[in-house]
Amino acid sequence: MRPDTSAEHVDHNAEAARLERTAGLHPEDAEHLLLQAAAHLELADDRPRATTLYDRLLSSTSLENPHLVRALKAANLWEYGHEAEARAIIDGVRAASPRDPAPWVIVAESLESHDELEAAQETFTEGATLLLTDVTDPPYATHPLLFGRHRVRRMLGMPHDSWDTRADTLHKAPVSLDELHDPKRVWSLGSDNPAELQAEIARLQSELTTAREALSRPFPVAILHWPADELAELVAAYPSLESEYPSHEEHLATIETSLRELAASGTGNLGIVPGTVPSYEAFAASELASPAEASLLPQYATTLAARGRAVAWPPQRGAECWCGSGRVYEGCHGGGA
C-alpha cells in the first residue's frame, strides 16, 4: 500500500530515511520497504531521489516484482518532465505482459492522468484480457483493473461491455460506478441547484467510503504456509505444535479450506505467507515469547503480510499452485473450486 497522507501531516523525507535504514537491517524485505520509501519521496516532491531508489531496486537480481518497480518508475518520471523515458518504460511493461495486475493499473493510470485516454483504455483492456479471460470470480487485486477500465471507457463515451458489467457487480458502494465515473459530474460542482449539489456530495462520500475501505486493510488477510521441510523442522524443535500441524498434507488442505471459507463469507484480499523457522524464532524473540506458543502463529502471519510477503490467493488461471508442487493450481489444490 502506498502512503497517501499529505506532506502537511507527515515528514515524508524523514519517513523515507527511516524506511531506507530499516531496509538495510532487513534485506529480505528491502523491495517492499524501498518502494514505500520511494512513495514517501514522491509525496515530498523529491521525485529525482525516488527515481534513484527505483534504479537501486532495478539493479538487484532478486526482485520479486520488477514490472511493478518499472511501472512506478515510469509514472514518477513522467510527473517531473521525463515523458519520453516514461513512455518507453510503459511500452516495455505492456510488452512484458506481467501476470500481476498492479503494473497494468499503474501504467494505465499514468496514461490516463496525462490525458492519454485511448492508450489508457487499451492498457486496461490488455491487462483484463490477459488476467481475467475465463475467470468467473476476479481476485481482489484485479478489481482496480476493472474499475479503472470502466472509468476511462465512461470518459470516452464507449458503450458498456461484459467487463464493465462485471465491474458494476463488484462495486459495492451505494452510488453506482456509472454515476461515479460520469464525465458530466464536474459541471454539477458549479451548479446553483441544491439537488445537484447534494447528489454530488453523496457521490463524493461514496468515493471516500470506498477509499477508506481499501486503506483499512492495505495487506491481505493471510494464512500461514509452512513448506514441508520447514514444518518438519518446526515440529521437531517445538513438539507442542504437533497438535496444530498433525501432518503436512493436512496442513495444506486446511489452508485451502480456510481460504475458501473466508472467500465464501465475503472476505476479499486473501493471501498466503510462507513461513521459515529462523524467521519465526526471530519474531518470537521480538515478542518476548516462546516459539512453542501456538497463539504466536497468526500474529506471525499478519506481520509477514504487513511486510509485503503474502502471495495473493487464489492464483491466476494457469498459474502454479501455491503449495509448491509445481502443478497448475486447477489441477492441484484448486481442483473442484
Count the E strands: 3
| Count of alpha/pi helices | 16
Residue share in helix: 55-70%
Instruction: Output the radius of gyration.
Output: 22 Å
| Span between termini | 29 Å
Which descriptor suits the 3D outline?
A: globular
- Helix/strand class: mainly alpha
How large is the share of residues in beta strands?
Answer: under 5%
Mean pLDDT, all residues: 86
Return the string of H and E elements: HHHHHHHHHHHHEHHEHHE
Q: Major sheet: order of its strands? A: 1-2-3
As residue ranges, the low-confidence spans are: none
| Oligomer description | single chain
* Main sheet properties: 3 strands, mixed
Organism: Streptomyces vastus
Protein name: SEC-C domain-containing protein
Protein described:
The chain is mainly alpha-helical and 337 residues long. It contains 16 helices and three strands. It has a three-stranded mixed β-sheet, sandwiched between helices. Helix 2 runs antiparallel to helix 3 and helix 7 packs antiparallel against helix 8. The longest helix has 23 residues. It is globular. This is SEC-C domain-containing protein.
